[in-house]
């Protein structure tokens, strides 16, 4: 039987609230199993860009990562956020190790095709170095990833944090029974987006298709759920979506996904 | 007999020149022995602070690290510089792993006493986690440190890069025969600071005391040399000071220190 591994993704909105983040990191540190944390960005990157006078570029409503944006992202995600999260985890006796995808060649990606839309310095994951991540876990370390990858040729790339999380979870399933936990600003997948208590406890593929057909799933939720089912289809044992409270051992309010 | 370990410190001035840095990282990657890189800051932190409208504070001519300065240092040193250096090393087939002192609890420090001068968020190293650094080296990884430490209670601290280097070198001497290489903008310790070719090839303790007595050592050089002798007295096998060319196997222009 494989050892259990918990992989926790925390969204940017949770990082923006220092108190929520502190509690979340304390709960995460209390997890006894081997574990990995992956964090998003939050508002601080946008705020820093603004202070530096960098204008964000949108093409067809989607954000483009310019060379200047990539610099800010690297500073804020891999520097400010990642290192402060690591320092806080250390204070909670969790031996955290902060990583970008370039570190130990953990997450390699291809620059996204420039057609039909040139997204700039954005990467699509092509390889997870699962062997080295396992070695770090075996050394009792807790990897803490920001969502920056590299192309192996010296270029850092901005990468979607939910996707990186799914790819890492899939790759680590070779060695572990992986539970994937997406923590974000809502209590789970909601039946009614206005009602925080309308969490759908379980969603399987059939239910997901029905919810999609009825347009009951909030736009921002769709790619997140796609990632969840992608992970389940590729070897991840268990996937749940919920709020920061998901990490508390007595948590009951969340959405569990299954095939 | 202990395995050899090369520890290379590169100063901020070398980082500011992209071409010099690229060559240096290529030469570093070509080192076959286990190795560690430690990098300074360079002008980009000051430039970023300026762009963000943060004024640097000086007390008695010495720079103070305010909370805002620490944020910028964390962004630039641990984020922008560290990750770009790691990505470049990866491109040279060196399996680099970027670290701050908080990562894997590698470098723990105490906040410097606030008397007689309050330097702000500055740390003095109190512990190097040499066991974990050895584990990383054994896993064929090349640690790349920026000079940020942590206090173990959640606070990151700005730390002198030359001092962190000496402390890491001393701690690693338990496991390895350590050669410490300080690379900076000059060819070595100069007899005449105006003449790049006046490199003193060898300096022992007696010579160092004589140079100091004659006020022949440039002010900025004194703490660097103190670190070198401190390292030698505490188990480091060999210490050399030179330019970025120090890493080229046929380099002959440098200063070698001995007790």
From TrEMBL, chains A, B:
Its EC number is 2.7.2.8. GO terms for biological process: L-arginine biosynthetic process via ornithine. It is an enzyme of class 2 (transferase). The keyword ATP-binding applies. Residues 4-242 form the Aspartate/glutamate/uridylate kinase domain. InterPro entries: AceGlu_kinase-like_sf, AcgluKinase_fam, ArgB, Asp/Glu/Uridylate_kinase. Belongs to the acetylglutamate kinase family. ArgB subfamily. HAMAP family: ArgB. This is Acetylglutamate kinase. It comes from Mesonia phycicola.
């Amino acid at each position: 039987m494989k050892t259990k591994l918990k992989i926790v993704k925390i969204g940017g909105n949770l990082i923006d609230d220092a108190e929520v983040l502190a509690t979340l990191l304390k709960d995460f540190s209390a997890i006894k199993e081997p574990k990995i944390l992956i964090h998003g960005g939050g508002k601080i990157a946008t705020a820093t860009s603004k202070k530096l006078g960098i204008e964000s570029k949108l093409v067809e409503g989607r954000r483009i990562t310019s060379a200047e944006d990539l610099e800010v992202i690297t500073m804020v995600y891999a520097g400010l956020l990642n290192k402060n999260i690591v320092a806080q985890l250390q204070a909670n006796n969790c031996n955290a190790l902060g990583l970008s995808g370039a570190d130990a060649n953990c997450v390699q990606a291809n620059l996204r095709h420039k057609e039909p839309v040139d997204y700039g310095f954005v990467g699509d994951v092509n390889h997870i170095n699962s062997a080295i991540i396992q070695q770090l876990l075996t050394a009792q370390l807790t990897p803490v990833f920001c969502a920056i990858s590299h192309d192996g040729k010296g270029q850092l790339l901005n990468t979607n944090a939910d996707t990186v999380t799914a790819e890492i979870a899939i790759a680590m399933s070779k060695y572990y029974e992986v539970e994937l936990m997406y923590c974000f600003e809502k209590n789970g997948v909601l039946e009614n987006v206005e009602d925080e208590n309308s969490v759908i406890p379980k969603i399987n593929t059939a239910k997901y298709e029905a919810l999609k057909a009825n347009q009951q799933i909030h736009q921002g939720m769709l790619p997140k759920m796609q990632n969840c089912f992608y992970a389940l289809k590729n070897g991840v044992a268990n996937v749940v979506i919920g709020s920061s409270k998901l990490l508390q051992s007595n948590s009951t309010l969340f959405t569990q996904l299954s095939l």
